[in-house]
Amino acid sequence: HRDLHTAYRRQRQMCIRDRLPPSWQHPKGRNPYAHVAICVKGHFGRSYKDIPDEKLQEVLDYIDYLVENPS
Known about the structure:
Blueprint: H1 2-17, H2 32-44, H3 56-68
Helix pairs in contact: 1-3, 2-3
C-alpha cells in the first residue's frame, strides 16, 4: 500500500504546485511536497511513515482536500 500511496501523493502534490497562493516567506515559490507533508503532519499529528496503514484512505482523502483547498 505504501508504494501506491507514495505515487498518489506525488501526483496530487504536482496538482497543487501551481495552485498554492504566493507567500512573502517563499519568494522563489512554494514547495508543494513540503506543503502537503507539513499539512498532513499537522492534521494527523505524525509524519507519513508513522501513520498506520489503516488510515491510508483517510490520508488520501485529506490530500485531495488540500488540492481542492490550497492555502
